[in-house]
Write a structure and sequence with these properties.
The chain contains 27 helices and 20 strands. It is α/β, with parallel strands linked by helices. It folds into 5 domains: about 160 residues, 3-Layer(aba) Sandwich (Rossmann fold), CATH 3.40.50.300; about 100 residues, Orthogonal Bundle (Recoverin, domain 1), CATH 1.10.238; about 120 residues, EF-hand (Recoverin, domain 1, Orthogonal Bundle), CATH 1.10.238; about 180 residues, 3-Layer(aba) Sandwich (Rossmann fold), CATH 3.40.50.300; about 50 residues. Strands 2-3-1-4-5-6 form a 6-stranded mixed beta sheet, sandwiched between helices. It has a 6-stranded mixed beta sheet with strand order 16-17-15-18-19-20, sandwiched between helices. Strands 7-8 form a two-stranded antiparallel ribbon. Helix 14 packs across helix 15. Bound molecules: guanosine-5'-triphosphate and magnesium ion. The site of guanosine-5'-triphosphate (GTP) has 21 residues, from helix 1.
Amino acid sequence: MSSKEEVRILLVGDAGVGKTSLIMALVSEEFVREVPAKAEEIIIPAEVVPDNVPTHIVDFSYQDQNEEDLVEEIKRADVVCIIWASNDEDSFEGVTSVWLPFIRRNTEEDQRTPVILVANKADLIEYSVDEAMTPIINDFPEVEASISSSAKSLKNITELFWYAQKAVLHPQAPIYNPEEKELTRSCKAALERIFKICDMDNDQILSDDEVIVFQRKCFEVPIQPHALEEVKQTVQSHLADGVDIRGPNYGFTLKGFLFLMELFIERKKIETVWTVLRAFGYDDKLLLRKDVLEPKLNVGVGSTTELSHEGVQFLTSLFEKYDEDCDGMLSPTELTNLFSTCPRLPWGPDVNNTVVTNTSGWISLQGYLAQWTLTTLLEYKDTLEHLAYLGYLYHQDSTLSALQVTRDKKIDLQKRQTARNVFRCHVLGPKQVGKTAFLQGLIGRNLRYVATLNREQLSKFTINTVQVYGQEKYLMLHEVDVAWSDMLSPTETNCDVACLLYDVTNPRSFEFCARMYMKHFLDSRVPTLIVACKVEHPEVRQDYNLTPKAFCEKFKLPPPQRFTCIDKVNRDIYVKVATMAAYPNLKRLVHMLLVHQNPVWLEERLSHLKDAALSNDKRLIKYGIGVVTLAGIGFLVYKIVEKYNK
Ligand code: GTP
Ligand code: MG
């Protein structure tokens, strides 16, 4: 497979060197004495070319064309053959004094068009011109190959065009330095990444099983055991530490793998190396192709992006692969190794304060998956790009299978059920109210611990799993800064639930919550929770015409939730927030849950009422509660409501 859809070969050179004759000789397989100044453009269909890429052959002649045409053709060409006549000194001079500089001037420096040097009319001389061409090859890296030919004796005609084609489809310059007889730096880096991806058990050795998978991925044909054995022996005979012979994992080391690739190139099998590189998504500049990094995904306005089961599985196995000491945590070194196939570390130091870590700040599997969930929710393109770098495509056709797009929230609301797993909560409150503490509480940190953290590295986000009716859901908290003008942008109000925080010790703080609620949430369908912070202190009277409790009653909000986090953080509040986000229609249910704050009480009710639940469906409908979604839970609501109304 090549990144090119067609190859355009242009022939240039001084007048009379035999350009048109070479093209005619290729087409008619004989020397044509009478040729026009310029041959018509020839298209060789894909079926008859080795790499199945249609090939255009384009002649140029100053007899028919001018310099403008030449510039135009050079820009369009994928490869240029500079022809000179072996018996004509001047035409040889022209290669370096005219043609190579002219081509350089008219192509981009970072994308130099490959050049093939062709010494034509070989039938007219009796000596080799190879030596004359060597210094040019050394001075002009864009020269991929040189060849001598004769249109008259039909020498090397097909070869010349094959070289040209190969220079486009399997160029040497990006991957190999012939002077040093060495792979280029970027090629080594690409192959090292490939090695890491293929080394699935992370033991720095490609075992036979791993080579078999690699072979199938790149070449789509199985490798025979004896062939594999032979390759290993060849590598080992040249390079003692190219193959690791210790223990049961007898296989290629990275050094041996790189050496094997060099061997292919030296044995004129450069296409083999390109096949490997392209199978892993590289383009001609040895960068991952755009279609690999940025596959198209349609995400509607009301939808969000989450990791799919496949995505979670891949990321989990990656975590396990790099958790070398199997302690369930990624140490800084392990984290760096995990991302060593990516061009840069995707997570800044604030990740340690965004998700669950141990006390040294090392990320647990739970935290790691939560961080990926956050990235996928906020910047799914980042997730897709990194999955590609991390080797997701080694086992799957597209990174898109790692993601799922949720149904439009409007439909969720209509149908009163949601399949979403990630909910977004925006946290607002006046300065110093305790927003950061509230965010950090979600990842199990109390205020004493938060006080030890570097404030610079605190994040505006935290995310963790929360149990909502026995199901694991992700709750993401986002601290939203409110400008002086009280304005919030649409993205700042776009959330599944909002928490408005006030400080029980600051009499002026509730007014902020009330104002925010009236301005931004009263008319929206976003469930809102008022949170009273710092309740370990005595509560002062708020300077507002309604008490927080009365305010909530007036606007049919759940009563203010009391929150403290000095030592022990009560996780119940996060469960409540997530529940409100997951079941926004069930205001009454949520309200009830919040009134009866004792979860034991709920559990008891739940077990008592479970049996009777099945027979009460009709009444549930009467109460307008999502029967389909909640089944047993719906019944519980009904019963509670009934009890409450008595
Ligand atoms: P312009 O179109 O004018 O730029 O020339 P060209 O490069 O297309 O050269 P063309 O193919 O017209 O050939 C010029 C002359 O060289 C003709 O008389 C050809 O027959 C002759 N010629 C071309 N190739 C060979 C060759 O390999 N050996 C010999 N002996 N003569 C050749
Ligand atoms: Mg011609």
